[in-house]
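Reopening this ticket.

The earlier resolution said the output was attached, but the attachment link was broken on my side. Pasting everything inline this time so it's all in one place.
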Amino acid sequence: MRCVIARYPFDLTKNGVLDLMKGITPEPITGESVTIGRRRYPAKQVGEVITRQDRRDFTSGEVTRAMTRLGFTCHDHPDAAPVPAPTPLQAASELFGSPVPRDV
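Inline output:
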């Protein structure tokens, strides 16, 4: 399938992308991402590997559009890490400040 990334046409296939990404270690995800095989890669990393261009030359949107058309699953944002709920003691100390020590 013909895709245009950074104003350059590329003839990409799903198997071709799988072969190119084989053996590539995923970088930490901070924005849009693409699931290729069993791994999730940042869109910019995928674009750099498949186009051999600098990441500044294209947008992650161009890459995710092309990967979606090829049948890959794309994600808008990274999965948010769960935020631990404060314990009742932590919540109370945030509301009222730390307790005043008593004289013994």
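Reporter confirms the inline version is readable. Helices lie at 14-21, 43-51, 60-70, 88-96. The longest strand covers residues 2-5.
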